Amino acid sequence: MYNVTIIGSGPGGYVAAIRCAQLGLKTALIEKYDTLGGTCLNVGCIPSKALLDSSEHYHNATHTFKTHGIDIPGEIKVNLEQMIKRKGEVVKQTCDGINFLMKKNKIDVLTGTGSFVDKNTIKITAKDGKVTEIKTEKVIIATGSKPISLPTVPVDKKRIITSTEALNLKEIPKHLIVIGGGVIGLELGSVYARLGSKVSVVEFSESLIPTMDKALGKELQKVLGKIGFEYHFKHKVTEASVKGDEVTVKAENSEGKIVEFKGDYVLVAIGRKPYTEGLGLENVGVKLDQRGRIETDDHLQTSVAGIYAIGDVIKGAMLAHKAEEEGTLVAEQLVGQKPHINYNLIPGVVYTWPEVAAVGYTEEQLKESGRPYKVGSFPFKASGRARASMDLDGFVKVLADKATDEILGVHMIGPRAADMIAEAVVAMEFRASAEDVARMSHAHPTFTESMREACLAATENRAIHI
Q1: What angle do CA 109, 111, 112 make, to 5 degrees?
Q2: For 388, how many CA atoms within 13 A lie in the half-sphere containing its CB?
Q3: What domains does the chain contain, in order, with CATH numbers?
Q4: What's the rounded Cα separation, in Å, for the pair 28 and 40?
Q5: How sure is the predictor about 16, in pLDDT bands with cuts at 50, 70 and 90?
Q6: Assessment of whether the complete model's pTM goes beyond 0.85
Q7: d(Cα 307, Cα 137) in Å, to the nearest integer?
Q8: Does residue 30 carry a pLDDT above 90?
Q9: pLDDT tens across 294-340, in order?
Q10: What is the distance between the terminal CA atoms of the chain, rounded to a whole angstrom?
């Protein structure tokens, strides 16, 4: 009998397992694939960042090295096979690290598809059909999500692909059509744009990254345009078809007219949906909401006592670090602790270059709520550190309460924004004011000085360097 069993070994699942084991609970982790780590480690966060980094090196070699005084004799070429191979090695090392952590924490890893027989009995079906059953007091469902597809755009995994296939292409697309202007499409589109692909984004809404502050989407549109992105906003994709090596995408524009886009690959990146197939939720009565997500209460317990759910399979942003926080929260609750999560302070990041990062309220949300606020902004073109590295695009934008000066939201696009956003999260967790951050010493020259300058700008327009 296990104290707790986790189904799914992504960031939410494996972190939950480790925290449960640290707290003295006898823990089992069920994973249907041969490697641990879920989507994030195998076909998501980690491999995409590896390719983004490799493609950025190539882009710099062909576009900025000469300015830096670095002359490379001969033609610079992309070895896509090696690039993909390195990505695979990064994935393997990371997944092997999770295996080590499972052994270190004495967690039983059970390979197969887990499903409920009853609330305390889990059936595990291996690939060869062999079935075993285990008993458990508590269960944490952490089965994640999978790409959403369009009924009229049949994914063949060859020419019409998802993010999974985009990580393992055998050739650089001549013209990659990306359906969706969100995080996944822009990151993977960036990889191939840097390597020489023409990239066309077909987006239903009127801007890129529509869930983030509109100033970020506007700036990102401009900077990605510099590497060859073109955009078609307010276009509803109606169908896609493949003929030989050519893919045709048809979409209805804002005027109601049907337009065609032709390319050699189409990446469908319109989001992800919870993965609950084969769990046998109906056997125990776990309820789903209208969007197919598992319903939970404030303690992440489902409609069945003793069964919890975390990560992409429940409501909220589909982020690995959100799932990790939820896994930790459930584990600590099981032993009587009282942890909490402030969902408003979970940062979001887009790993293009420049990077995009944000936490807290957007300006649009503050306007809609009627809360009085003030804005401080600082452009990276005014940063000495950014000038030194030729990273002049982007800005840091700070939103603060007009009366109290408390920081309500931070939105940045620029070099190392993914790392810089952590300062904003820390400040907002401690309910710091813009002046608090402005009065903290920031090393010079650093990118993070731009955060301080934006806070100075929000504090009686006191920015020094603009």
Answers
A1: 140
A2: 7
A3: 2-147+273-343 (3.50.50.60), 160-270 (3.50.50.60), 354-458 (3.30.390.30)
A4: 20
A5: very high
A6: yes
A7: 9
A8: yes
A9: 999 999 999 999 999 999 999 999 999 999 999 999 999 999 999 99
A10: 64
Residue 452 confidence (pLDDT): 98
Mean pLDDT, rounded, of the chain? 97
Give the three-state DSSP class for 95. helix
Helix (H) or strand (E) holding 43: helix 38-43
Average pLDDT over residues 214-239: 97
Q: Are strands 108-111 and 246-252 parallel, antiparallel or unpaired?
A: unpaired
Q: Are 10 and 37 in contact (CB under 8 A)?
A: yes
By the 8 A CB rule, do 438 and 462 touch? yes
- Which helix H or strand E contains 335, and what residues bound it? none
Beta bridge partners of 139: 5, 307
Strands (E), 323-390: 348-350, 355-360, 373-379
Cα distance between residue 182 and residue 267, in whole Å? 12
Alpha-carbon torsion, ordered 413, 414, 416, 420, to 10 deg? -50
In this prediction, residue 460 carries a pLDDT of 84
Interatomic CA distance for residues 281 and 114, integer angstroms:
11
Burial code (b: 16+ CB inside 10 Å, e: under 16) for 189-228 equals: bbbbbbbbbbbbbbbbeebbbeebbbbbbebbbebbeebe
Nearest one of 124, 118, 139 to 17, comparing CA atoms: 139
Mapping DSSP to helix (H, G, I), strand (E, B) and coil, where does residue 311 land? Answer: helix
Strand 258-263: give its sheet, edge to edge: 236-243, 246-252, 258-263
Phi, psi of 248 (to 5 degrees): -115, 125
Looking at the DSSP bridge assignments, the partners of residue 349 are 357
- Residues sharing a CB contact under 8 Å with residue 387, sequence separation 6 or more, in sequence order: 381
Scan for tokens 């390195």, then name that residue.
86
What is the rounded distance in angstroms from the CA atom of residue 341 to the CA atom of residue 321?
Answer: 12
**Mean pLDDT, residues 152-181 taken together:** 97
Asked if 429 and 419 touch (Cβ cutoff 8 Å), the reply is no
Contact 209, 356 (CB under 8 A): yes
Cα–Cα nearest to 264, from 278, 251, 246: 246
pLDDT of residue 3: 98
**Which residues have a catalytic role annotated?**
444
Please return the burial class of 80, using the count of CB atoms within 10 Å of its CB with bins 0-12, 13-18 and 19+.
Answer: middle
Question: What span, in angstroms and rounded, lies between the C-alpha atoms of 165 and 170?
Answer: 10
Tokens at 274, concatenated: 């919870």
Confidence (pLDDT) at 216: 98
CA distances from 101 to 110, 354, 356 (A): 15, 33, 31
Number of Cβ atoms within 10 Å of the Cβ of 258:
11
